[in-house]
Amino acid sequence: MSDLSVCPVCGEKATKICTACQSVAYCSKEHQREDWSQHQKICRPYKIRESPEVGQYWAAVRDLEAGTILLEESPCIFIPQGHPSKSGDLFQTCLTCGTEMHSEGLRLCSRCSWPVCKQACEEVMTGF
């Protein structure tokens, strides 16, 4: 969080607060425009607040349109699905070693039913 009393461009007294995030202030509109390429990377429509009842939470600092995305994350796991191979048939990928498995060689883990290519890969996944 920046010091709202100091312009991040020149260090002078700042009185013009960013209306989008209210977390930074500038001494002039010109300096706000000049800093936008850097500030837009951190300009968020919410502030993190804290309450004894609910702990930390996000509070909007301006009106948001329905459907506004506030957070995007990459998945931490991918569920395997059949993929077309060069020959056109579907194949799965062993989750342990990444080997391509066609339907005739498909083996499912006895504990989780996810595809594995051999007993050794199943043992790695289940810890047996």
Automatic annotation (TrEMBL):
Superkingdom of the source species: Eukaryota
Family matches, as Pfam families: zf-MYND
Any one GO MF annotation of this record: zinc ion binding
Boundaries of every MYND-type domain copy: 7-43
Keywords recorded for this protein, A-Z: Metal-binding, Zinc, Zinc-finger
UniProt xrefs under InterPro entries: SET_SmydA-8 (IPR053010), Znf_MYND (IPR002893)
Protein name, as recorded: MYND-type domain-containing protein
Organism of origin: Allacma fusca
